[in-house]
Amino acid sequence: MRMSRCTAFVLPVALMLTIGCGRPNATVPKTAAGGATLRSKRQGGAISARDARGSVVSLRERPRRIVSLAPAVTEILFAVGAGDSVVGVTAYCDYPDAAKRIPRVGDLNVSAEKVLALKPDLVIADLEANRKAIAALEQIGTLRGRVFVIAGKHFKNIMDAVGLVGTLTGHEALASRTISRMKQTLTEIRQRTQSQRIRPRAVFVVQVAPLWVAGGDTFIDDLITAAGGDNVGRLAGDGYRAFSLERLIVADPDHIVSSDAKPGGLRKRAGWRDMTAVKQGRVHVLGYDAVRPGPRLAEAVAQLNRILFASP
């Protein structure tokens, strides 16, 4: 069962925003969100870039007033050196600390009025988390053509987004260095784990009751794989899906990773307490920021790698 638009709202709100699982059933242009490199073109002071929708956003000059509609977007803007130009963020934008002092334009429900009042040159949104806001803002004449959309479904999408945001904001050099650091860390982890004969089997629990897991073709699937693990959640299919507790008990993962489940709580739940991961204390809690599809993804992979391959 794939998460529907209505069912999605029973999931932890902050997790919905950080992993961008607003409407997995929606059709996404394959040339953008499917992994193809997004294009940018600079002529003089002007810049044009094709976003995750396939739409071209053209700016006459470097934007000086930027509104971010998602935590990962905010992190990317600061990572590439454009933090000083950010004039609006959401309630969930909590990293870096400087982002906490920027005016809020909403949470999952973005206020078009607040965005407009900030007079942005550019609005950057997430394809999954901000679908409703994107549609609304594009209807406002002064913002039409100024809304740039990124996708965070896979690692490649995220690196593409870092590069494009760097180009759009006039910070190509720092964006390039950020991408290089991410790739270097991922390469080092891959080289360390290649010699491992057994890949630890892990499941990412999005929500305990009812049980939802991160399946294949997701950012979390990329995260577990890059860390050297085998994603048990793939048994549920692609996307963020409902999964029966009975099937998880049979699968009996080596590790349970979650931003929702707590070790003590699982030990008190029937079925859960009998799983190897729970009995042996291999239930790991990651903060929402650790599973955010942004420039810190390499750090998240390194953290999960240490967890999966920790000495008994």
How would you sum up this structure in a few lines?
This protein is of the alpha/beta class and 312 residues long. The protein has helices at residues 13-19, 71-79, 112-117, 131-137, 155-168, 172-193, 219-226, 245-251, 263-267, 276-279, 297-308, and strands spanning 40-43, 46-50, 56-59, 66-68, 86-88, 122-126, 147-150, 201-207, 212-214, 230-231, 240-242, 255-258, 283-285.
Largest sheet: 6 strands, mixed
Uncertain segments: 1-10, 21-38
Instruction: Please give the share of residues in helix.
Output: 25-40%
Q: Determine Rg (CA atoms, Å).
A: 20 Å
Number of strands: 13
Helical/strand content category: alpha/beta
Total of DSSP H or I helical runs spanning 4+ residues: 11
Shape: globular
Which strand-content bin applies to the residues? 15-25%
Give the N-terminus to C-terminus distance in angstroms: 36 Å
| Overall average residue pLDDT | 87
How do the SSEs run, as a string of H and E? HEEEEHEHEHEHHEEHEEHEHHEH
Give a description of the structure:
This protein is an alpha/beta fold. 32% of the residues lie in helices and 16% in strands. The chain contains eleven helices and 13 strands. It has helices at residues 13-19, 71-79, 112-117, 131-137, 155-168, 172-193, 219-226, 245-251, 263-267, 276-279, 297-308; strands at 40-43, 46-50, 56-59, 66-68, 86-88, 122-126, 147-150, 201-207, 212-214, 230-231, 240-242, 255-258, 283-285. Strands 8, 9, 10, 11, 12 and 13 form a six-stranded mixed beta sheet that branches. Helix 6 (172-193) runs parallel beside helix 11 (297-308). The longest helix has 22 residues, at 172-193. The model is unreliable at 1-10 and 21-38 (pLDDT under 50).
